[in-house]
Structures are given as C-alpha cells and as structure tokens.
Amino acid sequence: SQPIVFYDIPSNDTLKQSPWSPNTWKIRYALNIKGIKYKTEWVEYPDIEDVVKKLGGKPTGKKPDGRDHYTVPVIYDPNTKTVVEDGIKIAKYLDDAYPDTPRLFPAGTDAFQAAFDDFVWSVTLAFPLLSLLLLDVSNSLPPRSSAYFRATREQQFGKRLEEQGGEERWQQLEAGLGKFKGYLERNGAGNDLLLMGTQGGITYSDVQIASLFVWAKVVWGEGSEKWKRLMGFHGGKWAQFCAQFAEYERAD
Question: Which stretches make up the GST N-terminal domain (predicted)?
C-alpha cells in the first residue's frame, strides 16, 4: 500500500524543524501507534486554506468574520483516494480503513471519548497550557507562519502574546491535570496510566493528553525550567504517562 500523505505545520530552526502542533501530533501518534506508513507534507499557516481546498478538503469551522476556516491535520489516503480533515474524524477513519491495526476507538467508547474531548479543550486543561505556550510557539515558527499566528491569536484573545500566561495559568493547569489524575485513579493502583486501563490499551483520549505534553516538550525543550515544572506536578505522574508514548514520537 502507498503511504498516507499527512499535512503538518513546520517549525523554524530553533526547534530543528520538529513537529510541534498538538492538533497534528494527535494524528502523528495515531499513525505511529497503528504502524501505518505515511509521509509528511509541511504547510505554513497562511497556505493551509489553499492547500486543503486544492485537495478537496472541507472547512472545519468558521472564522470570527464568518468565513470558512480550514485547518490541519488533514490526510490524503491514496489507497482509498480519500481526504479527511479534523483530528477526531481522521482517527476514526484510520480505525475504519485499517481495521487490523490497534483501535483508538474501542467498540462502545465513542460517547465517552466525545465527552472527554470537551473536558480536554475546556478551560480545565488545554486553555491554560495554550496561554502559557502562545509566545513560545510564535517564536518557534518560520516568519510567515509566526506573523499569521500572532495576528490571529491576538485577535482571538484580545491581548498581546506577551501578556498571556502567568502564575494563574500554571495553577489552572495543575488543577486541570489533578482532575485528570483523579479520573485515572478510579481504575485502581497499577492500572492508572491510561483511561481504559493497561488492559484496554491506548485510546484516542489518551493520545489527546499525550499531544498536549509533547507540544510543551518540543516548544519549551526538555532542559527548560517550564518543562521540568510541568513534569514535577503530582509527584512525577506525568513523566510516567508520557513515557508510554515515547516509542510513538517518530516524525516520518
């Protein structure tokens, strides 16, 4: 079979052109977990709309002014001649199109995983991390993408990137992770590093959390004080959580 074409946003030399976006990392993890061959096509922020339109992909939402909003991740599967956009749809497509690979949506978990998606992207977890990372992300992008990222995010949040973050956001992030830790611990000791437990294996919901961590690790760097602080929350629990995904952090 031919490799899937996977569209991602490049970083600059600061990050040695590493993949950094949590949204695209979700699908990079999914492809690596499933062992599906793929090749990366790098697309800068200002070019995403044109590239996705040419592929025949659909918008994933609306911009503040009401125009269609086109985003990555997007994949093109030459084996089925299919374009799929939006993380959760892509992951479900990969489960359906490649049924002999590990499933990210085990039977009967769709409702649970949809609810968990709301938890991750609510104010409890992803938002405080985004706030802490915004300026560092902007500084990690090639010039055109950086200018686009800054302009759109400053419009979205109504303040300069330099005014984002702060101690309050760190506390929100720690509290959000504490809530997630509480969910995991309901599985019982020794079985509390994946939402479905170690027997259930990695699900898309676990991948969502892993993608937030790898985002911070890539943008901040493993030697940074910010990364060390994040990994120090809750007695090193999150370093253990991240270790489960190390073998899938390949960038083909």
Answer: 11-102
Confidence at 123, pLDDT banded by 50, 70, 90: low
In this structure, are residues 181 and 235 in contact, taking their beta carbons and an 8 Å threshold?
Answer: no
Same domain membership, residue 215 and residue 158: yes
Residue in 203, 193, 243, 196 with CA at minimum distance from that of residue 33: 203
Q: Are residues 80 and 191 in the same domain?
A: no
Both 87 and 117 in a single domain? no
* Residue 111, helix vs strand vs coil: helix
CATH value at residue 131: 1.20.1050.10
* Strand spans (E) along 137-187: none
Residue 102 domain flag: no
Q: Per the omega criterion (within 30 degrees of 0), is the bond before 73 cis?
A: yes
The residue range of the domain holding 14 is: 4-97
How many CB atoms are closer than 10 A to CB 50? 11
Strand, coil or helix: what is 57? coil
Mean per-residue pLDDT, 61-73: 92
| pTM (two decimals) | 0.95
The total number of structural domains in the chain stands at 2
Residues 11 and 136 in one domain: no
Structure-token pair, residue 88 = 């959760």
Distance, C-alpha 109 to centroid of its chain: 20
Identify the DSSP state of 121. H
Residue for token digits 């990994």?
Answer: 231
